[in-house]
Amino acid sequence: MKKTCPFAGMKKYRWIGVILLLAVVTSGVLYQLKVRAQRPSEADPSESVLDVTADTLNIYLTKGKPIVLEFYTKFCPYCVRMEDELSELSAKYGDRVLVLKMNAEIYPDIASAYKIQGVPTLVLFDAEGTVKETSPGYREYSEIEKLLMDLGLIE
């Protein structure tokens, strides 16, 4: 009696198995890319405005620098426009002021702790981590800069 592999008759189905395996691997990779894209980027050096979590916000509050924190949502058009204003602020005053942002949809408990009722909203902290001002609505760069100067957070 001749010994043969029990799967010898399944050669014609091998390509179907390979295609199914590739489909499963591809969908797994695409899912991971989607999950990473939705996660806030922590301390990405290419970003001038850091997207923070509840834990990292507490760390930044103890750094001894004034903080400009924007509460935003992903689909808010004014929040998207304000990103450019905050990037410009970070470029000019980044050595003296931390410019951060936090997604109010992901961290609603933090947003409610700071009494955020709409987005975008800026919360300005002094170097000790005390809230000095809450400023709701879209602000241009010059308005943010003037607000920081009036509060004595920059010179």
Question: Could you explain the architecture of this structure?
Answer:
The structure is a single chain. The protein has a five-stranded mixed sheet with strand order 1-3-2-4-5, sandwiched between helices. The termini are far apart. Helix 3 links the parallel strand 2 and strand 3. It is elongated. The protein has two domains: 31 residues; 101 residues, Glutaredoxin (3-Layer(aba) Sandwich). About 5% of the residues have low confidence. 43% of the residues lie in helices and 16% in strands. By secondary structure, it is of the alpha/beta class.
Secondary structure topology:
Elements: H1 14-38, E1 50-51, H2 54-61, E2 67-72, H3 77-93, E3 98-103, H4 108-113, E4 121-125, E5 131-136, H5 141-150
Parallel strand pairs: 1-3, 2-3
Antiparallel strand pairs: 2-4, 4-5
Q: What keywords describe this structure?
A:
about 160 residues; alpha/beta; Glutaredoxin; about 45% helix
Reading off the top of the CATH hierarchy, the class of the largest domain is best stated as Alpha Beta
Q: Tell me the β content.
A: 15-25%
Q: Biggest sheet, in brief?
A: 5 strands, mixed
Number of strands: 5
Q: Supply the number of helical segments.
A: 5
Structural domain count: 2
Percentage of residues assigned to helices: 40-55%
